[in-house]
Amino acid sequence: MSKRIQSIRGMHDVLPPASSMLRNIEHALQAVLQQYGYQEIRMPILEQTELFKRSLGEGTDIVEKEMYTFEDRNGDSLTLRPEGTASCVRAGLQHGFLYGQPSRLWYTGPFFRHERPQKGRYRQFHQLGVETFGFASPDIDAELIILSQHMWGKINLPQAPKLEINSLGTSQVRQAYREKLITYLQQYESELDLDAKQRLHTNPLRILDSKNPDLKNIIQNAPSLLEHLDDESKQHFERLQELLTAANIEYSINTRLVRGLDYYSKTVFEWIVEGLGAQATICAGGRYDGLVDQLGGKPCAAAGFAIGLERLAALLEETQLEEPIIDVYMILMGGQAELIGLALAIDIRGKLPTHSVVINCGGGSIKSQMKRADRSNARLAIILAEDEINNSTVSVKFLREQRDQETISQDNLVPFLNANLNK
Ligand code: ATP
Ligand code: MG
Questions:
Q1: Within 13 A of 189's CA, how many CA atoms are on the CB side?
Q2: Is the CB of 265 under 6 A from ligand 1?
Q3: Ligand 1 lined by 305 (C-beta under 6 Å)
Q4: Residue 280 CA, closest ligand 1 atom number
Q5: Taking the domains of the chain in order of start, what are their residue ranges?
Q6: Which CATH architecture is the domain 18-169+229-319 placed in?
Q7: Which one of 175, 254, 374, 402 has the largest count of C-beta atoms within 10 Å of its C-beta?
Q8: Ligand 1 touching residue 237 (CB < 6 A)
Q9: CA of 270, nearest ligand number
Q10: With a 6 A CB cut-off, is 91 part of the ligand 1 pocket?
C-alpha cells in the first residue's frame, strides 16, 4: 500500500463537534460587532510579499522567520497572509475608503505563520480582526476595548480575561527611547539570548516582549517608555483610562507591553488569560496611525485588534462541549415510508426553519434505526411504518423525556412539533 498523505504540521482539520463550537463562537462575536455598527470586509488570503515587509517591518518575528512566501508561476513573490491589518489598509487605499466617512470594519478567516506548533500556536490559525479608520481620539480606543470585553461575556468565557494597556507614544518618542534602551541593554549584552542579541540594534523594543524567563529581571529594570511620552500621547493615554473607568473596565498598565509589530503607536492593549501557558494572549491590538502613510497613503488615524479564535475555543473546550442538538430523527420502514417521510421532512424544515430534521438514510431494521436515532442526540423520533402509512399518521417517540409515545395525523404534524419543540 502506498504511504498515506497527512495534513501539514501545525495545520489542522477541525472536526465536529469542535467545528460547531468554533462557528458558535464566530456567530456570537459577529452579533456583538453588529450591535456596535461594524461591517464585514473580506480580503484575499494571498498578498504581495512586499505588503507585509513594508507594513510589519524587517526586524519583526513575522517577516524574519514566520512568513509562508513563495514565487508563483509568473515569478512574483507572494505570501500567505500572516495577519490582517496590512491587507485591510491595502484594500482601503486601493478602494478609497480610508478618507471621508470614518469606517468600522471586521474580518475573519485563516492566517499563516511558520512557527513551532504547540498548544495555542499553529501554522494555520484563525483570527477575528477589527479595524477602524479615521478616528483619531481615544474614544475609539476605548470602544474597541469595551467591544472586546462585551465579546467575552457573550461567549461565557469561564474566566474573565485581564486587560493590560500601554502607550508607545509617537515614532519620534520611540526613536529617542530606543537609544536609551540600547544603552541600557548593552550593559547586559553577555546575558542576552541569541534572539535578543540579534534584536539589540535592529528592534530593541521587541526585547521587552521576550518570553524568555532568564531575561525577566533585565527587562523589569529597563527604562520605561511611558516616562518618555510626548504630551499628546500622554493626554491620549490619560483620557483612555478615564473612559475605561467610566465604562467600569478594570485594567493594569504594563510598561513592557510593546506588541510584536512595528506599526503600533500610542495605545496598545492585550487581553490575557490563565491556563494557556505562554500562549496567554487571546486578543491584542492598538493604534497604528502611521501605517497608512507607511503604505503610501495620506496619513489616516487607525486602530484595531485581533482575536485568536483557537485560543478562545481552547478555553471553552472543557466547559461547553455540547453536541449540537438535532430536533427530529425520522425512522422510515420501507420504500413507501421513505417517499412519504421525505415529503414530510421537507415540509417540516420549510415551516419550522429553526428546527433540524435528520432522515434515516440507508434503511435498516426498526431496532437499528432506533439506535441511530438515539445516538444522533435527537429530541424525538418520528416513526413511519405500515400502520402509520395506512392511517396517514406518524408515531412520535420522545427520546429525552419520560413521556408516552403518541400517534399524530400527518396533517397535524407541523403544529404538533411547533408546540412541543418550542417548550
Ligand atoms: P504571540 O505573542 O502569542 O506570538 P502575536 O503578538 O504574534 O502573539 P498577533 O500578531 O497580535 O499575535 O495576533 C493576534 C492574536 O492571534 C494573538 O493574540 C493570538 O491570540 C493569535 N495568534 C497569533 N499567532 C498565533 C498562532 N500561531 N496560532 C494561534 N493563534 C495565534
Ligand atoms: Mg507571534
A1: 9
A2: no
A3: no
A4: 3
A5: 18-169+229-319, 326-421
A6: 2-Layer Sandwich (3.30)
A7: 254
A8: no
A9: 1
A10: no
Higher pLDDT, 390 or 172: 390
Domain 326-421, CATH number (from 3.30.450.20, 3.20.20.80, 3.30.1490.20, 3.40.50.800): 3.40.50.800
Burial pattern 1-15, b for ≥16 Cβ within 10 A else e, equals eeeeeeeeebeeeee
| pLDDT(55) > 90 | yes
Q: What is the mean pLDDT of residues 13-36?
A: 93
Helix 18-35 to helix 309-317 angle (10° resolution) is 120
What is the 3-state secondary structure of 287-311?
ECCCHHHHCCCCCCCEEEEEEEHHH
Ligand 1: atom nearest CA of 121 is 28
One fold for both 18-169+229-319 and 326-421? no
What average pLDDT score do residues 412-417 get? Answer: 97
For atom 17 of ligand 1, the residue with the nearest CA is: 308
Listed residue (249, 268, 250, 266) closest to 258, CA to CA: 268
**Mean per-residue pLDDT, 87-114:** 97
The number of the ligand nearest the C-alpha atom of 121 reads: 1
Does 267 or 263 have the greater pLDDT score?
267
* Closest Cα to atom 24 of ligand 1: 121
| Closest atom of ligand 1 relative to the 270 alpha carbon | 18
Cα–Cα distance for residue pair 66/83, rounded to 1 Å? 11
**Mean pLDDT value across residues 115-138:** 96
The pLDDT-based confidence of 202 (bands split at 50, 70, 90) is confident
Give yes or no for residue 269 CB within 6 A of ligand 1.
no
Cell readout for 245 is: 473607568
| Model confidence at 355: pLDDT above 90 | yes
